[in-house]
TrEMBL record:
This is Helix-turn-helix domain-containing protein. Residues 8-56 form the Helix-turn-helix domain. SUPFAM superfamilies: Putative DNA-binding domain. Pfam families: HTH_17. It comes from Desulfovibrio porci. Signal peptide: none annotated.
Length: 74
C-alpha cells in the first residue's frame, strides 16, 4: 500500500490536491521553483516534495520578493 501513497502525481492531481489551477502550477514551476520532474511531455510531482516546498514558503516567499522590487522602483 505504501507504493500507492508514494506514487508520482500528474498536473491534474497536484492541482486538485493544492486547490489551484493548472496555469498556477505551471507558473510556480517556471517562476518559483516548484519541485516538479519532466517525464517526456508530462510533468510529475512527489507529494512530499511539494508539501515541503509549500511549508517552506513556496510561491509566497518569492512573490513577496517581487513586491519589494516593485516598491523600490517608485
Amino acid at each position: 500500500m505504501a507504493e500507492i501513497e508514494d506514487r508520482w502525481l500528474s498536473v491534474d492531481e497536484i492541482c486538485k490536491y493544492l486547490g489551484v489551477s493548472s496555469d498556477t502550477v505551471y507558473r510556480w514551476i517556471d517562476r518559483f521553483g516548484m519541485p516538479a520532474h519532466r517525464m517526456g511531455r508530462l510533468w510529475k510531482f512527489k507529494r512530499d516534495q511539494v508539501d515541503a516546498w509549500v511549508e517552506a514558503g513556496g510561491a509566497s516567499a518569492d512573490s513577496s520578493k517581487e513586491d519589494v522590487g516593485k516598491d523600490s522602483k517608485k
